[in-house]
Specification:
Number of strands: 18
CATH class of the largest domain: Alpha Beta
CATH topology of the largest domain: pyruvate-formate lyase- activating enzyme
CATH architecture of the largest domain: Alpha-Beta Horseshoe
Structural class: alpha/beta
Distance between the termini: 63 Å
Number of domains: 2
Length: 457
């Protein structure tokens, strides 16, 4: 069978991200001897022409369409991606081939997106096993509707099969990606070390998409992939895309020790949680090549941390920030301002706390995107922000009723403009795509927040 996998993502801000989810699907179906091509639309100047060329060259029997995000999660500069993705789907429909939609963005709104695009089949969550089974059954002319993780429209009704999560996973089919281009324009390669998350942040979709039980790759397998991307593609800066690199802590320690044992010279950055971080791990991370740490802090007051469902305390953030300074590791804190419990007082407290901890960067988002199957959706219905059953495919954001939107935006802008280490994507403060592209052209690697200036204490 000839299979064409299409990555519909065209967002390049804050940096273009290689579609390794689709490469994982490709790695699975390649095992059955199929011919597989990935069409990545991220850099396409003429989408229609690129689609036509790929279809003519591949002559596919089945098409997979991956949707990474439905919008850019950024308020008030919200961008809805689905109209452009629908144009891609409309271009594919006349082929009269099975088109299977997947990806994290699709998995959040499967019925709404199938109806929006006018397509029949989709896969929720991890697609490796489900898409492989879909191809097998289609090739053998067998019934395809009983596959785990498959959703479909039939006779006007929406049907969803049980969702299963893989016990383990390894490396993606990275040879099908334009690795060098992503590294040049994005400054980093991307590698996944685990799936699943046990934490219960009120807004987060990750436990729904990947389960609440962590499934880790072996440390040896991960470092094998690190060596592959460096030796085969010249990528010497990596971002570990897990939400929580340091949990479980033994796994993170094992990865660092394996990098050190092999003498692999590679730079990297990662997301971590303040919960459970130790100075021992931070020193190992530094020794293993870590250049920057990003904290999903989200809130920086006692009240807002609790309302956001975070697993750590204000004192833990303070302690970990000091440990990072002692270990010589630069840090960035992501904040979501205007969420549940936010007031003018908590906003000022957040400003003061970030000044106290003084990270290399504070990346501040405004408002919280409301997603299905989250605690925030339940809260939003309770507070009348949205109605039960309301369509939230088009971006809807939670903004605390305890602080006016105009006050929230103006206070954030006023503060951020005075702080050289603050980035506010929603108000285009130190975040222009043109500036970031220029810095990449100059050869800068890693997260660009690392180039910001700290406040002088």
């Amino acid at each position: 069978m000839r299979i064409l996998l299409i990555s519909a993502n065209r967002e390049k801000s804050p940096c273009p991200a290689a579609p390794i989810g689709l490469a994982y699907v490709a790695s699975s179906i390649l095992k059955d001897g199929h011919e597989v091509e990935i069409l990545d639309l991220c850099f396409a100047e003429d989408v229609d022409a690129v689609l036509q060329q790929a279809i003519s060259g591949t002559k596919p029997d089945i098409i997979g369409l991956s949707i990474r995000n439905v919008d850019n999660l950024t308020y008030p500069r919200s961008i809805f991606y689905l109209p452009d993705i629908k144009a891609v789907a409309d271009r594919l429909k006349p082929l009269r081939l099975p088109i299977v939609v997947g990806g994290s963005g699709f998995s959040l709104f499967p019925e709404a997106i199938l109806r929006y695009l006018g397509l029949e089949f989709g896969i929720i969550g991890e697609g490796e096993i489900a898409f492989r089974e879909f191809v097998r059954r289609y090739e053998q002319h067998n019934e395809i509707n009983g596959i785990s993780n498959l959703v479909y429209l039939k006779d006007g009704g929406f049907h969803s099969n049980p969702i299963n999560h893989m016990k383990d996973f390894s490396s993606p089919a990275r040879q099908l990606l334009d690795n060098e281009r992503y590294f040049k324009l994005g400054g980093m390669g991307n590698i996944q070390t685990k799936r699943g998350c046990p934490f219960k942040c009120i807004y987060c979709t990750y436990p729904y998409l990947n389960g609440n039980r962590i499934r880790c790759r072996s440390e040896q397998d991960i470092v094998d992939e690190l060596e592959e991307v460096k030796n085969n593609y010249g990528i010497d800066y990596i971002f570990f895309i897990d939400d929580i690199f340091n949990h479980p802590i033994g796994h993170a320690i094992g990865i660092c020790k394996e990098i050190i044992r092999r003498g692999l010279q590679i730079d990297w950055a990662c997301f971590v949680t303040p919960k459970g971080m130790t100075f021992e791990l931070l020193k190992l991370m530094k020794q293993a090549g870590c250049k920057g740490i990003e904290f999903g802090t989200d809130a920086a007051t006692v009240a807002t941390i609790s309302k956001m469902g975070k697993s750590f305390t204000l004192n833990e953030i303070r302690k970990v920030s000091a440990m990072c300074d002692d270990a010589g590791l630069e840090t960035a804190h992501y904040l979501i301002l205007g969420g549940p419990g936010e007031t003018e007082e908590t906003l000022e407290q957040t400003f003061a706390f970030m000044a106290e901890t003084n990270p290399k960067a504070v990346i501040a988002m405004t408002g919280v995107r409301i997603y299905p199957n989250t605690g925030l959706e339940t809260l939003s219905i309770k507070e009348g922000v949205i109605k039960k059953g309301e369509d939230i495919l088009s971006p809807r954001f939670y903004l605390s009723s305890l602080i006016g939107e105009d006050v929230l935006l103006s206070k954030i802008k006023e503060h951020a403009l005075q702080q050289p280490n603050w980035v506010v994507p929603g108000q285009d403060i130190r975040n222009s795509e043109e500036t970031m592209a220029f810095l990449r052209q100059l050869g800068n690697r890693g997260p660009l927040w690392n180039m910001l200036k700290k406040n002088i204490k």
